[in-house]
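re: ur question from yesterday

yeah so i grabbed the chain u mentioned. its 371 aa long if i counted rite. heres the sequnce exactly as i have it in my notes:
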Amino acid sequence: MDENRGEANRGGQIRGTAGGTASVPLSVLDLVTVGAGRTASQALRTSVDIARLTERRGFHRFWVAEHHSMPGVASSSPAVILAHLAAHTERIRLGSGGVMLPNHAPLVIAEQFGTLEAMAPGRVDLGLGRAPGTDGATAAALRRTDRLKEGADDFPQQLAELTRFLDDDFPDGHPYARIHAVPGPVQATSPGGVQSPARPPVWLLGSSGFSARLAGVLGLPFAFAHHFSARNTVPALDLYRESFTPSAVLDAPYALIGVSALAAETEREARRQVLTGALSMVRLRTGRPGLVPTPEEAEAYDFSPMEREFVDNWLADVVHGTPDEVRGGLDALTKRTGADELMITANAHGGEARLRSYELIADAYGLPDLG
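ran it thru and got these structure tokens back, copy pasting raw so excuse formatting
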């Protein structure tokens, strides 16, 4: 890869700017949540509404995550959803949080995100994970193989191949040297080519130390899943920073963390809303995935002692309450982890509660209304 080209095209697209009184940029991770009594079409419309709201209020980026075989999560096809969001937004960065690389051929991902870059030039991120984003049986169906561990172990090699396709720079003699991801840089170097050679910056995602170390060694930005692996957050970020080697992409580490957070007018209402997500997780962890329950169903549910313990532990890592309480919790988390950016995900049954939460958080930090 041409280092100057990489720096010019990607370095400035990674670091965000904090708005209002926030100490770090605020972003959004959306799961296209489908609640009981709602349809996937309604969930996708809500995602558009959230993207447009958070763009208007100055949030930095909006990512969607790849999940499979989960009735309450309609984000199995991030590239398709991002194309839809690109048509309804103008400024906010859009990306995957993430695409699970072992589930896909690197060339396919390069083509999909090259297409997205052509649709929304200069505002597309490619976040990559090595987990399947689902259970083992579904992963085997996706990958047409039951050798799942092998796919995870091959992640560095798959990442290198994907990067070569994105940069169109396989060396002479390589079997793929004459293969080009289109849209992509090859169109800028072809006779008469006028297309920008820019391509989406690559992020590594993780919930343990493997991707943290790899991101550091490669000098890439790193996103940690604090929202479901909170105990590993600080050790993983420390490992990333200790392993970091300056690159054409970054001269210093840049790490964001995903955090579950929901604000409401009252503490009680916030608790009602986040309990729906907690019950969803109970059912998922016990092999009963389904649509996100209503607040009424969650309040009436008879949790067993073991389930109650799980819920209490889960909710301890969800920042929820009044806007001031959420702001305080997010600020404390930023200070404790040293995160460079917070990516907020609001898990609740209804789109109205999620939209209201992002509006209240924006107000709590004094983010401007950009219209």
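noticed a couple things. The two ends are 39 Å apart (CA to CA). also The mean pLDDT is 92.
anyway ttyl
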